[in-house]
Design a protein that fits this description.
7-stranded mixed β-sheet, alpha/beta, 6-stranded mixed β-sheet, binds zinc ion, binds 2-acetamido-2-deoxy-beta-D-glucopyranose, 308 residues, 41% helix
Amino acid sequence: MCFWEPCTLVIIFDYLQTEIICVISVVIVNSWSIRRRSTAVQTTDMTRMTVKKIPALKDNFMYLVVCNETKNAAIVDPVEPDRVLQVAKESGVSLNKVLTTHHHWDHAGGNADLFKRYQADTSLGPLQIYGGNDERIDNLTNPVGQDDTLEIGNLKVRCISTPCHTTSHICYYIETPEDKVVFTGDTLFLAGCGRFFEGTPQQMYDALITKLSALPDDTKVYCGHEYALNNLRFGNTVEPDNVDTLQLLNIAKESDLEGRRAMVPSTIGQEKRTNVFMRVHEPSVQKFVGKSTPLETMQALRAAKDKF
Ligand SMILES: *[C@@H]1O[C@H](CO)[C@@H](O)[C@H](O)[C@H]1NC(C)=O
Ligand SMILES: *[C@@H]1O[C@H](CO)[C@@H](O)[C@H](O)[C@H]1NC(C)=O
Ligand SMILES: [Zn+2]
């Protein structure tokens, strides 16, 4: 017996180790497959343009915008340059513009690296970097402001200045005879809006109500992050009787992360029906925060969401 006991212990220990290794590898395989799935590109084919939504980091989106006729392309917020160059190559497009929504690292953090690669490889051609006039945006070659325009091949892009989340935040609006799209960065999210880091409730009001709400209802909204579930939960708390919100919340709840990613793009019309920050005139929204003016409601709503 004395001979066997340690041996049994060793066998048990060996068995446990194998178990632990098994558990660890299952965890690694699981997180690896989640990472793999979440990098899948989703494409929206429109008549004259194509938008490719490329998930990046934890919950960011980068967008490749292609002019169908010329195959010229721009990339919105290329935080992962490797991935951007890979998708551009696979798509057979000529990428020569960066549209920066704002200076935060998870949006503009890839600009310098991408710029360097274009300088190192002249076959890629020159790279123009657009963004709000702000020295915090690396390698900005083309500072833009309200109503400035630029072209991606034959596509006309109009810049919409939306300071508040940051002082130099820009949204990019593209209109063709058939389709409209807007890239809203961290100003407007599906059912939410960005934090007021460098601005006032009045500025977010101007951005969401005066400017973005004025775009056609069928404008597709491509935002900077995947926050659908949490934002819709908040919206449902503010307006429990809003059936459109409830319907979207149920879709978000039933989807895994990848499914929720498929909820972007939204539309301006959908946001006007369901995004409480776009609905600060509504008595139902004002009642939730106990305010009677749209501006006070905007401020109180953001404070409530920050604690949600
Ligand atoms: C635009 O380009 C995409 C990708 O090449 C294509 O799938 C789509 O059909 C094109 N649209 C038209 C109307 O040609
Ligand atoms: C690009 O930006 C980086 C980081 O700010 C800087 O070090 C580099 O000098 C810039 N390059 C040019 C050509 O401006
Ligand atoms: Zn941001």
